Amino acid sequence: MAVPKSKITRSKRGMRRSHDALKNPTYIEDKDSGELRRPHHIDLKSGQYRGRQILKASEEL
User: Is-contact 55 49, C-beta < 8 A?
Assistant: First the structure.
């Protein structure tokens, strides 16, 4: 059975967990529609992804 040789200090434990913190999501402005969207995601207003029409464009009410 694996047993640690010595106690892990709070500092070392904190360093290991430093990447676990939640970060704010990134948004970019779409070049065509000007809407904010996530990188590498479909623009829901125009329905385009990388210049290709994927979904039908949503209509404003």
Answer: no
Q: Which residues pair with 42 in a beta bridge?
A: none
How far apart CA 8 and CA 43 sit, in angstroms, is 46
Counting residues of the chain whose pLDDT is more than 70, the rounded percentage is: 97
CA 42 to chain CA mean position, Å: 14
| Residue ranges of domains in the chain | 24-61
The Cα–Cα gap between 38 and 41 comes to: 6
What confidence category does residue 51 fall into, taking pLDDT thresholds of 50, 70 and 90?
confident
The Cα–Cα gap between 12 and 33 comes to: 47
